[in-house]
Amino acid sequence: MTIMARMAGRLLRRGLTGFVALLLGVALFELIQPLVADSLGGPRGLEPFLRALPPALQALTRSRPEFIAVSGLAGYLSLGFTHPLYLVLAATTIVGFGCRSLAGEMERGTIQLALSRSMSRPRVYGARVLGVVVVALALAVAGPVGMIAGMVIAEPEGGFVYRYFVPTALATALLFWAIGGLTLLGSAAASTTGRAVAWATAGLIVFYFVDYFASLWEILKPLEPLSIFDYYDPAQALVNGALPWSNVLILGLIGLAGVLGGLLVFVHRDLPT
Description:
Layout: H1 2-14, H2 16-39, H3 43-51, H4 55-60, H5 65-71, H6 73-78, H7 84-108, H8 111-115, H9 121-154, H10 165-189, H11 193-214, H12 234-240, H13 245-268
Helix pairs in contact: 1-9, 2-7, 2-9, 3-5, 7-9, 7-10, 7-11, 9-10, 9-13, 10-11, 10-12, 10-13
């Protein structure tokens, strides 16, 4: 475990500047949300603003004016964790690490260096899994920290329970774990970083738009459970402080299935020389 932790640390340090920049981007984006809420006049000004948005834009940001009317400030702030920009920043971070640390090292041939030091393939792969966990947890913490800073600065009107950030962070961490696990599966099967990134990006786009169009087009409703975003509900976490156990279980299992699938592929594949 110590060896895997050291290797994961080295992998994280190689892209540390970009990693920190993306974490700051996530935190800054969430910091802005309370400032926007305050500028719109708190809960009283939020509902008319959201009702003015076209239905397609409401679906894109997963915002429901009637939900905001009931949940107030917390409901509006939860939109910061479903906004496309937040998801893009977070997905870029975790996909970038998963692809760079596995497919990228196979492409460059540097993974052979670790294997030449009497390290088994499962241990080498385990270091990547540990790195994904660290990245997912860092992203899950960065958002709430940024939003708390925004709340302190803006002090917007409306009731809010700060301890509900804990289940919200768990909801985001589970989504990132699922994305990371699937990314490792693709990264283990790919021979180049570009191909691994393309596979991961294409998969996330399909997942996102299945979830998006299912809310607009009834014919796609049966396909909605096939999207990982269908099991991601930070709004319930931030408003009610609760997560459906079915969502926790499914996202956890999706990430685990991706990790185990990637392990099987990596252990049995021929590595490029």
